[in-house]
Specification:
This protein has about 675 residues and is an alpha/beta fold. It contains 20 helices and 17 strands. It has a 7-stranded mixed β-sheet with strand order 4-6-7-3-2-1-5. The protein has a 5-stranded parallel β-sheet with strand order 13-17-16-15-14. Helix 15 packs parallel to helix 17.
Amino acid sequence: VVPLRGRRSALRELAGMSCLKSCLGDASVGSAPPTGSSDGHNILLMTDGYKFSHHKQYPVSWMPEHARPGSQSGEYFPAVLFPPTSKAPGAKLLQLATVPGGGSDSLVLITNASTAVVKVLGPAEADAAADINYACAAVEYAGPLKATLVLSLSGDALAELGFPTTHAKVRVSNVDESKFKRGSSLNASFEGGYNVSYFTCRGYKEAFEPLATDGAGDHIVFFGLQYFIKEYLVGPVVTAAKIAEAEEFIARYMADVRIAGPAFAGGWDRTMFPRGDWEAMASGDYECTGVPTPGAVPGALPIKIEALPEGSIVAPGVAFFKLTNTHPRFYWLPNFLETLLVQVWYPTTVATQAREFRKTIQAYSVLSQRVSQVDFLPGERDFTPENIAADDLPVHIAQVFDLLDFGYRGVSSHETAGLGSGAYYTAGFEGSDTVAGSRMLLRHYNAADPKLGGTPVESFRAMFEQLHCATSVPAAEHSTITSWADMSPGADPAKYEADEYAAFVNMIRQYMPSFAVSLVSDGFNIWNAVANLWPSEKVVEGGEAGGLSMRAIIRARLKAGQLTLVRPDSGEGVETLPQLLSLFHATLPEAWESGLSPLRPLFAPTDPRQAEYEAVCESIRKAKGLPAGDNPFRRFVGQQFRILQGDGVALDTVGDMCASILANGFCVNAVHFGSGGGLLQKLNR
């Protein structure tokens, strides 16, 4: 039963034709009010390292309204320490720090409005009055607007800064050079601005490249943003403790002293951290007035996110979402958060890939004229492009296990597993062993009230509880089978074959009431298992209920409408699947349907593709010795006995496997596919 390449190639070509491609429609998942779970994360440190330096690079800067041009008399300059007014206090000096390599010639003045590097103009006269006294604690400036200031430093402050005692009183510039955006036409009034960042996919690459030329365009499934929002961004995510942690980390992280020499030996750079901005978010006092700004939520990020509904199917170049700062002070924040939110590429790519898996299997379902086994619900059962697009329950339910998610162990982290498996469900599949996926959806994708009378089910929890939309099944693994047998040197092969058979019978008998069971069968020899063990009439004795053979178990489960899966876990699926199906057709004839309905035309009579399709079908009949006109695509009774192919299944291999199944005279629904790394890990952005 070597696959005939000519038939397989023709089937692949037909499966790729646009007339057979189905439209899944909008796979939207329930939107939900955020609940937040970000206590264990520090959003201040969840970005690219280079972004720590960005807040001073934009063509705008921000100062409080009462410190801007026109609010003070005389020539204006952006003061680091600005004076109080009748309505607002003066600037608060939070901390002084040294400038890397600056010695005692410069200082970092960290205030509630800026992080400014200023020149130290030298020691002040002994009798000069101090404008502000700094003793390693925050202090509010109460003096007038001045271009230079006299700072009085305590002994602890001198020691902390490493300044000589001659600098116990120093004169410093009070001009914040970082506020001047020379050459920019956007900074005349120091009002900050609003920055819009957006996310889009630019095009198709690698396994998705054929989508760029199919003429439809809309194939990308947007998914995963809600997880990132609720996990990391919602609620009081900016706190004093997180600010302190971030400030110390960044000061060290951004100051590499290994090459720079003795002047940098302190190894701390505090010029890059906008502590005042973060503290404003923590307190809600955006305007430096001493009270929360109207509309501000202390601790919350001043960000607005607008997005398409998750599950939307879009083309490259369409913006999935955009984020904007809600106060002009924080113009740097949208791009700061970009690093985290761009990670939506991963669940979006998995969701897109899962949909392409589904479309591929659907195409071969049409070519093999599949019929849904669900005959107890209203709706069409034939797999035609029109019926697939209509998504009536019989056709929908028949597909939910066509692709199973086996990716938990094959991904890089538990979070990856949750996001990837959650994305898998958006394509309408429901069979996953990646527990993290359904758990993530239960936590992050729940509408406030999913049971409003007559409305569609909106949340994943409601679907999980009402419609059973996520499931696994009792399944064997190699250890639960091979542990029965003695494989030591000199062991009797006949004995360990008998032990393997006993393990098979035991596994299925233990879970006989379950709707589905899956039995891995290549622990020793898949060919022997399929040819001799699965169809065996041998009874394994023991127990009050008496003995049963594998064949008797299969008959009982077929009669009860239960699903039994045979899992080979080795070999090339393109070759092994038709071989295993052919063996089962010979050894378990009672598991196969008889009297299949004749094939119907798939194309118009004048369409040359219909003639090609008929020629391929006739070639299959001749190869399998079937009478002319017979339906060549053999299938199991009620779709209740299948092979589960869980090895080597990826988007670029599943089509070849499907074509091989059809080319050897079987319906595509004779096989379940399971994908692990190929579904959740074998991709990039």
